[in-house]
Amino acid sequence: MRSGPHHRPHTSRFVILSGCSGGGKTTLLAELARRGYAVVEEPGRRIVREESRTGGTALPWRDMEAFARRAIETAHRDMAALEPDGSWVFFDRGLIDAAAALEHVTQSSVLDGLAAARSFHRRVFLVPPWPEIFVEDAERRHGLDSAIAEYERLVRIYAALGYQVDILPRIGVERRADHVLKTLAED
Q: Which residues are in the NadR/Ttd14 AAA domain (predicted)?
C-alpha cells in the first residue's frame, strides 16, 4: 500500500520536477535558478559524469540496479545538505525517481519504506514526452520509447503515492516557470 499525502507535510518547500527524459526539466530548472530559486541537479546525470570519468560501472546502460542505488544515496545526501529557509527548492528528479527505477529493475518494493519520500511538497510537476526536443546525448543513451515508458510509470507512481500530479504544458521555458510558480503560490 502506497502512502498518501496525509503522511507528508503540506508546507514542504521541496518541489519535484520529474517526467519524461528530454522533456525540458533541466532547462526549466535552469530558468528557476536564473530567477533566484535553489535547485538540485538530477542525481543520475551527476553519477553518469562521475562514473564515466572514473571508469565506473554504475551506469544505467551497464548496471541499472547499482546506478539506481547510487541515485538514492545521492538524493538522500542532497536532501540532508539543504537547510530549509522558507523558500522553494526545486529538484530535478531525485529520491522518488531513483527509488522507482530501483523498484522497476528489481521488481521489489522500495518506495513503501522510503520515509524521506514524504518530505516533498504535495504537488509534483511532470514534463510530458516532447518528441520535437528529445535528444540522446552522452548521459542519456536511451531512446524516446524508453523515456515514454519511464514517464508513464512515474505518472502512476506519483499518483499512487498521493501526490497531486501537474503535467506541464509544452510551452516555452519562461511560461513553464511562470506556471510552476503561480501554481505553488495558489496551493
A: 15-176
Run of H or E residues at 173 = helix 173-186
Q: Count the neighbouring beta carbons within 10 Å of the beta carbon of residue 152.
A: 12
User: pLDDT grade, residue 143 (50/70/90)?
Assistant: low
Give how many domains the chain has, as a whole number: 1
Question: Domain of 35?
Answer: 5-186
Contact assessment for residue 122 and residue 164, using Cβ atoms and an 8 Å cutoff:
yes
Q: What is the CATH number of the domain that holds 161?
A: 3.40.50.300
What angle (nearest 5°) sits at the alpha carbon of residue 156, between those of residues 44 and 66?
A: 30
**CB-CB contact of 24 with 173 (8 Å):** yes
Give me the sheet containing 14-19, strands edge to edge: 38-40, 89-92, 14-19, 123-127, 164-167
